[in-house]
UniProtKB/TrEMBL annotation:
Keyword Transmembrane helix: yes
Transmembrane segments: 130-152
Stated name of the protein: OmpR/PhoB-type domain-containing protein
Keyword annotations from UniProtKB, A to Z: Membrane, Transmembrane, Transmembrane helix
Length: 163
């Protein structure tokens, strides 16, 4: 299994979980295993032009499915587009090249990324939901109390009149 790595110090690629994290916009993308294999192959040969047949042989172990391959390339193009610039250079049906700097992710980077991008757990989300509900309830009760006191003090006092 390949180790986690960065693309242009922006995208954290985690091959073990098929996840790519865009650190610039804090977006987590899950991609298919074959698309991840394709990305890892391109990253291992960054800056080099690789033929379509070679990519299929290395990344997909010879399984030649034109539609799936094209879909993976489109997915990578969308994923790796930065400020309207494509890091994935393509000569249609001939060669593919990842124009990027690849660097290894060390354990401290991974811990920092995990802490910054981990979504709330179910328990944390439920706790936040109950805190919000209780806060709204307290505000409503306070408003009722204030309105009741205001109307009670301003209403004419009723006195018992006996005829």
């Amino acid at each position: 299994m390949q180790k986690d790595f960065y693309i242009n110090d922006q995208f954290l690629v985690k091959p073990g979980t098929n996840v790519v994290i865009d650190g610039k916009i804090s977006r987590i993308s899950r991609i298919s295993q074959r698309t991840m294999q394709l990305l890892c192959t391109l990253a291992n040969h960054a800056g080099e032009s690789i033929s379509k047949d070679e990519l299929i042989r290395i990344a997909w172990r010879g399984n030649n499915n034109e539609d799936a391959f094209s879909q993976s390339i489109i997915e990578l193009q969308r994923l790796l587009r930065v400020e309207k610039k494509d890091m994935l250079r393509i000569v249609p049906d001939k060669t593919y090249s990842l124009q990027a700097t690849i660097s290894n992710a060390d354990i401290d980077d991974l811990k920092r990324e995990a802490g910054a991008t981990t979504p709330y757990s179910a328990a944390q989300a439920a706790t936040k939901k109950w805190i919000l509900i209780l806060s709204i309830l307290i505000v409503i009760l306070a408003l009722i109390f204030v309105l009741f006191n205001y109307t009670w003090k301003t209403s004419p006092s009723s006195s018992l009149v006996i005829f």
